[in-house]
């Protein structure tokens, strides 16, 4: 949620929320706040070393440096050593024993003991030497005694080799609550950050983030969404933190690296993370108080359900909720003329969720597949059912399930963090006592296989305008298990899922994609996040109703064929290696989050959390079973759980052009019916409560309430930015290619990125670059077909992929400056990125060579399938992530670089992708020739336009450099007869795509104000303008004010008061453009635009009222801290750290500029707030971009007379922008 603009061209890395064995499907969890697309982070180890044999529990808040001592120096050899709060070192204890034993009668014994001690010291020194990568003996596990606590029984404590960590399961004596503690090995070496060229001063500390979480098993008995609404509501104030929204306050001003909450079909999870101990303890306390003492279920919290869940709002009410004239006279309007509408944050969120056909097919399938247990209900809430939830049901659900006995708690950190968390939780839980009924009542029962024949259902979904009768969808979902599954079989299912669907060349995926029946596959395969696993597969974009039956037959026939033929040894070896590599590579700073969420996949059902996350034994057993039976294991699984299993659902969704209007009418009828049954008193009570809610939301909180929120100070912030190790060598091995190195601890894994300039590609051909990338990622070679080549990659590497990077760079001489860029200095590069273990580095470079020079571009079916799937995915994203398209569309009007981004990845790409598909079918021979010419131009480009980026341990880098030299000098082709001209320094000259792009920009946008019509029940509204001119200095304080607006006015007014699921302020110093945009917004677009208009004035009002400067600038300090928290983020994995350092290098950003930016953030004053607000009020070239339904645009016009140029999707097979004035 932090308002942080990443360096252009880089992908923002957000907090990971993945199960260890399988990434959890988004349909299975709903977030308290929307998280942008996430990527699993890899483990990075601690950079400091401690010796921890004993922990001082009385000083658990102290720093590690205070709790532990490695001091071995002593001035008095005669002093007798004794144990104090410091733990003596091995050398100290050896010396003490010598003093005691050196007596004449005991000399022989002493000599023997000294000899043993000497040998022990030598052995410890040798085996603890981390410089030897082949050392197979490990250090003693940390915390060998473990952390004990008087209020808990220790159920199990083991050192887990897979994670280099101690895992301890406790049981709270008073309540029976279970508490899992994860303590990583803190004795591992950190990365070498010294002596590296171009390395900065902040230092890269990959120490994992501290993580805390609490989960409750929450079993729904209806689709009112009460678990989901409670997840939102408990974070709206509590006994100790009575603010209306402590959660929002933490977003404003903490150093959190993760702050959210999730609702699953059977559990509600509240996790937090931070790298700062003070902040971490604050977050922990706020969440504990929130879940155990929420105001939402007390009388004083009457308003929370109405704000977060659902309420009646008066249509056309005044801003203060009254229904009279502008003076607020509620008596001027007859009650008979008052009409209601539904509002509420969760209600809006779920309207958006139900507008997504893929999400809808998942939800309906689950309901049909589980007719006899609680999974038949939607824990997130059905918008048609949410308004039936009463306050009594809301409070009753909380009291039933939010009890310590029904909770599972987790902490990841060092021993002092564990003890603190145990103590803090004990203080909250002990007074609540033991309540076995809460745990018993929440138990989830197994759904038995009761279907005598498969279930087939048809349901409508809201189709895009003009889609007609095409666009059918079919998904088949199987129930896999009816009892607990062994760890080996769980892993076997993950492998089978990979075999069936893991790659485009996998047999089930390939059969569906090659059929040409639909646009792309859906379903996602295996889902093992709940008590019972499911497997789903289908397609969307089927052209005819008849194709539904054909597709179902194709799926079953493919499974029958696989049952008969099985999988090859290469298929199995590739999938096994890919999964094993993923397991061993691990996560980054949020590894603890992965452990927590992964453990819950079994822990939530009273099974062992340890068994849910360990994998070595299961992996060995699976390997042994495969060695014994080969493919037969997987054939038997297909036969028993898929082919012969009648407990499956075949769900067809068919397009309905009228459904959106029918749903709106049904909602109006539902409200009208409810109104007709109300007495005058009930009617008036709703109006009065609406007024009270508006008054409460508008009321300033008292200084005492504000002061109750936990806070940090500027002194808690590191004054220097995070820097990553980097060494740059031009003309490496006289190849002409630049080498970039990053020495970090990578557990013996090499990360290699090879970049090639693509600026020589003509501008009118750049739309084909995605086609080239798709073939590099999916096609075969001259001697291997696509399946064989992708299996080879899977067997020898951890994954290889091609991608395109088009990024702004600073003009030459601007390294230390922070100015608005001209947008004409651009790098355009094709990157091949891969990873492997150190012994497979030669194989990795062999794969690179084959991908670049030997991939068979004459692969029409492969490319067509890839392009269709990509286009289908973009269209789906337009409906469920419209805010991203709106913001990209808007920004594309302000700079050439932004325009290129919109053209290649925004709404415009729907047109270009459709045009490329047409070209593929129209003249394939000519199309292949164009791609081949493009490839040759790229690989024959001048060497000074290429770069190789290596990340890993020192010995890994040494090995990689040797192989890289051979690859660059001897394997890359050189056209001596027609050498490529030198690649220009694009920091000094304009990129060749700029001039034609500038011309195209002139006619690219039908107007400054545009709408994009899609079938949806919500809107995504964006407005923005230029705040800074090109070349103008931009202070880091601008980020602070934008963050202040996102977590203040946008959150309070647009989210809380008006029901949008998300509302954001965004500013980029790269283009000088500021934007406001909303996510899943229930309001008509003109209403939201009107609210945007008040944002800048709200800042000036806060200045005028001294809200910013009160209590020694407390509000400004809070905004500064929150901005820094977003800037620093979570610890990056080795791969991500190396990539981030490379992007910074390519961008031309110096350590000086990063330090300057940070200094300006830290020194933000009230004058900076005034300046930013004035710039927003007077931003230039103001424009609007909105994604919404046609009915929303029509209503907007009828209300305001404002006309937008509305772009409409023509049909499912082809995108045509139809601009017309409404």
UniProtKB/TrEMBL annotation:
This is Presequence protease. GO terms for molecular function: metal ion binding; metalloendopeptidase activity. Pfam families: M16C_assoc (PF08367), Peptidase_M16 (PF00675), Peptidase_M16_C (PF05193), PreP_C (PF22516). SUPFAM superfamilies: LuxS/MPP-like metallohydrolase. Coiled coil: none annotated. The chain crosses the membrane at residues 110-127. Its EC number is 3.4.24.-. Residues 20-30 have a biased composition (Basic residues). Gene3D superfamilies: Metalloenzyme, LuxS/M16 peptidase-like. It comes from Skeletonema marinoi. Keywords: Hydrolase, Membrane, Protease, Transmembrane, Transmembrane helix. Residues 1-33, 45-85, 184-205 are annotated as: Disordered. Residues 61-82 have a biased composition (Acidic residues).
